[in-house]
Structures are given as structure tokens and as C-alpha cells.
Amino acid sequence: MSFSRAFESLFLALLLLGGGILTQVGCFSFNFPNFTDQNPVDLLMFSPNSRISGAAIQVTPDVNTKSYTINQSGRTFYKKQFRLWSKSKGVAASFNTTFVFTITPLDPNTPVGEGLAFILAADAALPESSYGQWLGILNAATNGSSQANVVAVEFDTRKSYPEDLDGNHVGLDVNSIISIKQVSLGGYGVNLTAGNQTSVRVVFDGKNNTVSVLVMSNGTGEYMPVIMSLPLNLSDRLPEKVFVGFSASTSNYLQQNIINSWEFVGDDIGEDAELLWVWITVPAVVIVLISGVVFYMYWERKHRERPEDAYPMIEDQIRGSSMAPLNFKLRELRKATGNFNPRNKLGQGGFGTVYKGLLANKEVAVKRVSKDSRQGKQEFVAEVTTIGSLRHKNLVKLIGWCYEKGELLIVYEYMPNSSLDKFIFGDEKLGLQQPPLSWEKRRTIIHGVALALDYLHNGCEKRVLHRDIKASNIMLDSDFSARLGDFGLARTIQQSDVTHHSTKTIAGTPGYMAPETFLVGRATVETDVYAFGVLVLEVLCGRKPGNQSEHNDYNNGIVYWLWELRREERIVDAVDSKLAGEFDEDEMAGMLVLGLACCHPNPHQRPSMRTVLQVLTGEAPPPLLAAERPDFVWPAMPPSFKEDTDNAFIKSQLTPFTALAGR
Ligand SMILES: *[C@@H]1O[C@H](CO)[C@@H](O)[C@H](O)[C@H]1NC(C)=O
Ligand SMILES: *[C@@H]1O[C@H](CO)[C@@H](O)[C@H](O)[C@H]1NC(C)=O
Ligand SMILES: *[C@@H]1O[C@H](CO)[C@@H](O)[C@H](O)[C@H]1NC(C)=O
Ligand SMILES: *[C@@H]1O[C@H](CO)[C@@H](O)[C@H](O)[C@H]1NC(C)=O
Ligand SMILES: *[C@@H]1O[C@H](CO)[C@@H](O)[C@H](O)[C@H]1NC(C)=O
Ligand SMILES: *[C@@H]1O[C@H](CO)[C@@H](O)[C@H](O)[C@H]1NC(C)=O
Ligand SMILES: *[C@@H]1O[C@H](CO)[C@@H](O)[C@H](O)[C@H]1NC(C)=O
Ligand SMILES: *[C@@H]1O[C@H](CO)[C@@H](O)[C@H](O)[C@H]1NC(C)=O
Ligand SMILES: *[C@@H]1O[C@H](CO)[C@@H](O)[C@H](O)[C@H]1NC(C)=O
Q: What is the pLDDT of residues 516-526, one digit of tens each?
């Protein structure tokens, strides 16, 4: 690119960017017809309990389980603050917002609670203990004080204190949970808790300081006459800039608080000074960015020429570790895999592709870490050094590695029988109908995985958490013994997620994640045990973990289903029909109970892998287990939590042997 051409494109970019910013300054509006990836949902921010699911915002948890939904509150805001008024200009902005919400009872037979609100707040953070009557708007400490800095239009579904009109009203709250005005919706033919969609329009006129609320019940297509209209000087009550969004809560009374769509149109009263600032800083930022990109491209090219310098630590780190596996030449691995021929592709993982190869007449599997994943490199060193030094007959063996020309490659032994999921669920893609695994084989596989996991948790120098135990990560060798594979993948995913406050993507695989994962947000020994429990149930029942009921993406259908069968004292009915009854019923029941015990909702109650092994070998009886699913109890912190770190590899002493103590 010649200098003048470069200058030309820079000028063009400036012009486009400047134009873009200008139109943004002119107007504060957004529209979410729904909350799916087609709409820019990353413009929203969520408190820990709220998230997007089912194309809508779930302001409070949407899990169909009592224990998660009791006494919760949540908030969701538009990330960018809205300028409500300007002191220097002496003006207030008007706005007009329309949203559709649905409140559904969790249990149709019990009373619902507590409510949902549209809020304007100075502070985006969810107030502590704002569940129950506080509707996520404020709490006992800030109620009635101007420090609350919040104005809300509440849709209250429960009369929770004497001043509350009824369990079906709209109210206007200003820095207090006691509404300055409330109107019962019964008179308008609206029942908030009938599970119907309700459209609401809140209009604020900044010229005469009036706020109005209109409601349309589902499907009628027309708003009813203004339900509430009253004077309110927002400039007097709130700071110049506020967050706009929703809050909601539950108490011992439960409901789902769902926002289905949301449109907001507000005046932009941006100050001149701000506009000037934009015009000065934006070009400066653009110039810095472009020079950055140019410099980076230059640097990248240089660095590609001498790849060995780019990550000098890799070789030293790997060579320095005790049982360093073989270091292959890129040339050898290219040849082995037919230059990474797509026809030799065995599978695709989170951060690379696995190819089949032939090295010295021996079949191998070669994982090629994708070049543009930064985590790939950290994972690479971790996998080659730490996992590479693990030796166990039920772990997939790492043969060697290669780091050359920016390529990160790991060589494993080849597993002719591919992965366990193909055998228990069949391979839909290939249309292969595998012969069903016999009870003997299933028992051996479970035992093998337990041995591998006990070794990782308790048997090697440093404790290793696998974090992604699932059927597709269990390889089968030629004798159908289980080999645990794909290490560190989950850790890689976890690390990128730890800092992310939204739960849009969660570490691990849905269906295998312990309930507390959502609360403590990280993996522990006990979450591995939980995933192992799910795997046991899958293998015995021949079912995928999440497919027992339709609308669940993470509450472990198979586990709930088995608790249900256990309650009805017919747990053996769950067994895979493909086994055609060919198994020892007592032994099977014992193993199902063991699987369920591993999936105990409380991490403290789950057996250690050491205990699991003793049960499997008959040294100990199956654990005692309640006849009904126990409730999840706070605190969720599992016993090992304190020693856990963000790393997959925990420096810790071997766990003391946990005796069975009379179980
Ligand atoms: C969500 O809205 C987009 C338009 O923004 C539309 O294309 C899409 O079909 C909608 N999705 C659902 C699930 O309603
Ligand atoms: C929910 O909160 C109420 C009031 O604070 C309390 O009485 C009740 O015990 C709480 N329920 C649970 C399950 O913690
Ligand atoms: C608010 O917006 C809706 C649609 O966006 C419009 O139909 C309505 O007239 C507006 N109301 C006011 C008072 O501006
Ligand atoms: C909340 O504050 C209001 C004053 O704004 C007061 O009347 C009310 O009793 C308070 N409610 C609670 C539950 O403390
Ligand atoms: C709620 O919706 C049901 C149908 O889903 C309808 O029969 C009922 O009349 C609606 N109730 C209200 C109050 O809108
Ligand atoms: C609202 O609907 C729910 C669920 O259908 C029902 O239990 C309740 O009695 C209704 N409330 C009123 C005031 O009609
Ligand atoms: C609300 O109305 C829309 C169409 O207007 C309909 O698709 C939807 O099923 C209704 N929802 C409920 C809960 O009645
Ligand atoms: C405020 O102005 C709006 C129109 O912008 C009008 O509909 C409303 O009646 C006015 N309210 C008062 C109290 O004057
Ligand atoms: C609203 O409050 C602001 C800030 O206290 C004040 O400057 C303004 O005069 C008030 N507006 C009206 C109409 O009273």
C-alpha cells in the first residue's frame, strides 16, 4: 500500500467513524424485539441472577427448581447510561419506553411472588437482600432514603405489607418501596399472574414533568386508557445520568419474571462540550488505533519469520519437566497426517482439530491447536507438561508434541473404538447403529473412569481437575476399556469465563454441571464427581443427560428423572432397554444409587472418588441416600473450595483417605 493510498483510507475511515458517532449523539434509542443473538444483546448487563434464555430476559432465575428461586432478586440494564437532565442547560429529557413482560407461576398450585419493575437507577449494582418485598429496587437499608436514587414503576404480584393495595397492582415508587401512587389492575381486566404477556408503556414528559403508565393485556392490540399519570420532577430525585432497565424478585413465593421485548426512545440532551470532546478524541483514538494495527501487522510479520522466539518458554518449560514426552518435527507430523488432510480428521474440539496419523507404522491421533487461540498456548504447555507426566491405564496416553512455525501439535495414542457416546447414543451423523454395550462392558467402563478420576484427584503429585467429564471425552480402546481424554479443554473455557459476569456461556458441558457451579462459578473436586455421577446414569440408562424434559438446558434432566423414579421405588425401570434385562438387578440398583449419590445437590454430601471406587469394588456398600431428592442448601461452597484456585492444577496435599464411617 503506497503512502497516499494509506492516507486516503485513513481519511475515509475517519469520515465514516465521525459520521457514525454524530448520529449516535443525536439520539438515545434502542429496540429489542426479542432477546436472541439477532439483536445486540451484548448492549445489556445482567446481575448475577439474571440472564437471557428462551429469547427473553429472565430477570430472576428461571430454573424450575424451588431451591434456586427462593428469595432471589435480579436486575438487567441497558449498559449505556441515559442522560435524564442537564444542570448546565436546565433541561430534562423526555422518554417513551415500551416493554412486554410475562410473569409465570413456578407452581400453579401455590401463591406467587413478588413482582417486577421498570427502574431508573443511579447505581447498576443489585442491592443486597433486595429479594422479597423489595423487588430488587432497593433494600431495608436504603428504603425511604434519598441515597436509594431509584425510581420504579412496579408490577406487584403479592400483598406483602399493609400498605400494598393487593397482589395485582401497578405502583410508582420514588426512593421507597411504598408507592406514591398505586392502581389495582383487576379493574382493567389484567391478571399479572395468569401467565399472559402484558405490554406496558411508560412515558415521561420532561417539559411538564409528568409520568404516565399505559397497559395493554395480551393480544388486544390496543392500549387501555392511561392507568396512571402524575407529576414527578425526575431532575429533583435522580442524578443527571441513570441506568434504565428492570428489576424483579421472588421470596418464599415464586414466579418467573420475564421480559419478552423492550423498546426505548429518549431525547438526547448531550452537552455541546461533550460533542466537542467527541470530535477531538475520536480522530485521535482512530489514529492511535490505526497506527497500532499497522505496527502490529509489521511486528507479526517479523515474528512469523522467527517463530521460535515468539514463545521461547514453551520448549524450556516442556524440556524442564520430568517425564517429557517425545518432541516431534513438524515435518514428521505433516507426513504422518497427509499434510493435515481433512480426510484424516477425527474430530474438532474447542480449540483445535484432531487428525489420524501413521507414525513409524503406528496409528496415532494428532491434535492441532488452532493458531489464533491465545488460550491454546497456555493449555498446550499445561497439557504437555502436567498431563504428559501422568501415567495411568485409564487415561489416554500422550506420546509427544511439536512446536514449530507457530504450530502447536500434540500426539496421542490412537483409540480405534472412538468415544463412548457413539456406543450409548449411536452416531446420528454417520447413521451407524453400534451394537449395544453389554452390562459387563458398561460396568468395566464405569470402573475405568472412576480409577482414572481417583488417580487425578488423589493419586498424582498435583491434584488435577478434569472439568469436562462427559461421554464424548471417554475414549474406548480395542478391549473397550475406558480412557479419559481431552484434558484442559474445560479449564481453557473456564478461564475465559471467570471474569465474565453474564452466564451466557458456562464452563463445562450443560447437563454435566453441578448445581452449585452457577453460584460459585468454578470447578472443584466435587463438580468432577457430579459430572461422573451423570456419566454413570447415562451409561446405565442409555440416555443423554438433558433430554428428559423439554425446557431445560442445565438442570440435569436425567438426575431429576432418576430422583423421581427413586421416590416411586422403581429406579431399575430407568435401565437402558437395549440391555434387555440382562444384568444383576441388585448390582444395577446399587450402581444407580451410587450415580445419584454423586449427583447429590449438596457438594458436601457427594462421595469422594476414593469412596466411589470402594463401592464399585464391593469393599463398601452403596451410600445411604434419601428416598426423595434433598433440597439444595446454602452455603453452596464445597469442602474443597478454599484450596481451589483459578488454575486447573491445585497445589495441595493428597486428600486424606475418607473412611466410610458406618455407611
Ligand atoms: C428476533 O428478532 C429478530 C429481528 O430483530 C427476528 O429476525 C427473529 O426472528 C426474532 N427471533 C425470535 C426467536 O423471535
Ligand atoms: C426467605 O426470606 C424470608 C424472609 O427474609 C425468610 O423468612 C425465609 O426463611 C427465607 N427462605 C429461605 C428458604 O431462606
Ligand atoms: C411512544 O412510542 C410509541 C411507539 O414507539 C408511539 O406509538 C407513541 O405515540 C409514543 N408516545 C408518546 C407519548 O410519545
Ligand atoms: C419503607 O420506607 C417508607 C418511607 O418511605 C416507610 O413508610 C416504610 O415503613 C418502609 N418500609 C419498610 C418495610 O421498612
Ligand atoms: C390469559 O390468557 C388466557 C389464555 O392463555 C385467557 O383465557 C385469559 O382470558 C387471559 N386472562 C387475562 C386476564 O388476560
Ligand atoms: C390470576 O390468575 C391466576 C392463575 O390463573 C389465578 O390463580 C388467580 O386467581 C387470578 N387472579 C385474579 C385476581 O383473577
Ligand atoms: C400473547 O399474544 C401473542 C400474540 O398476540 C400470542 O402469540 C401469545 O401466545 C400470547 N401469550 C399468552 C401467554 O397468552
Ligand atoms: C404534559 O404534556 C403531555 C404532552 O406532551 C400531555 O399529554 C400531558 O397532558 C401534560 N400533562 C400535564 C399535567 O400538563
Ligand atoms: C425540578 O428539579 C430541578 C432540580 O431540583 C429544579 O432545578 C427544577 O426547577 C425543577 N422543575 C420544576 C418544574 O419544578
A: 777 766 778 88
